[in-house]
Amino acid sequence: MKWNHSKALATCCLMLPLLYNSAAAQTTAPQANTTFNQIVSSIRQEALSRGVSAPTVDRVLNNIQPVPGLRKLEYFQPESVKSYLDYHNSTVTAARISKGRQLMAQHATTLARLEKQYGVPASIIVAVWGMETNYGAVMGNNEIIPALVTLAEIGKNDKRRAYFREEAILAMKIIDEGYSQIVTRKGSWAGAFGQTQFMPSSFLKFARDGDGDGRKDVWNNVADAFASTANYLSSHGWKTGERWGRAVQLPAGFDKSLLTDKLADQTLKTPDQWKALGVKMPNGTALPADNSMQAMMIAPDGLSGPTFMVYHNFKMIMRYNSSYKYALSVSRLADAISAGQPATVPHPGGLNQ
User: Fold this and answer.
1) Please, is 285 exposed, middle or buried when counting C-beta atoms within 10 Å of its C-beta (0-12, 13-18, 19+)?
2) Are residues 279 and 171 in the same domain?
3) Which residue in 243, 271, 244, 246 sits closest to 347, CA to CA?
4) Does 116 fall in a domain?
5) What is the pLDDT of residues 182-213, one digit of tens each?
6) Structural domain range at position 249
7) Is residue 275 assigned to a domain?
8) What's the structural domain count of the chain?
9) pLDDT tens digits, residue range 90-142?
10) DSSP states along 281-297
11) pTM of this prediction?
């Protein structure tokens, strides 16, 4: 985004009084814990050294306090504590399917344009929107930068703490670009924000102006949120025209070592190769010959639960949230939204497919 020279002049005029207020605030602010104060001071210094304006740093960090209750959320997310069946049943609901269909029809022109531009299906964009914020109804109730700074202190390991520290600094850069919603609007416990929940680093890299008004307002402008989501998936490698995967049925005695538990250790085969191992459609018919694609087999609840053969685009959805349960729910929700059938919840094992 181009620098706004009039805003720069205004910022210069405000610099001295804000810096004075900063010093006063630091002497009178309530004392948080020592480690948190040290982190705030360190982030302040680094943000200034990396070009964040002093007024922005003061606005964000003066009197900042840790956000209570984040430690539990950092360690116990629904994706890690719920079974896939429970997770699916709580996210892919008949109400969410019906609302998604209504909104996809309402925004059909915009979504069709973006699908042509980025190659990401409208149903996937809408499903991400539905999963992330229930179509904009629930965008979070935490102040974004205080949450990020808190997590920079209490994150579960050094890598996580460094990640949230960086996100806090990037959030301040977003303010300097003219998006004060980072301060005035609330977001998720982890600092994600907007209609489709972007972290600050993702906003800076992937947010797009979806309607040509010169702004990237992912909070209030659904065209911008749609374009940003489509660009995010496309930039990570979404393959136009390919499906995400399908529910399947495994044969008795299937070798569970062939299941992919982690993306770092994938077992990839063509559908014909899986078919040769006894894998079938849920109704017992043969797998379609999608042999231009490689697939991995996943069973988020183990061999006793639903199983899925998933392709490259499934892993692109996992870029949003690196959970099989999340990506499956987005995928199944997208299928249900785009299906020309009554808005019933698809069976997680694929019996409605």
Assistant:
1) exposed
2) no
3) 246
4) no
5) 999 999 999 999 999 999 999 999 999 999 99
6) 245-310
7) yes
8) 2
9) 999 999 999 999 999 999 999 999 999 999 999 999 999 999 999 999 999 99
10) -TTSPPPP--TTS-BEE
11) 0.88
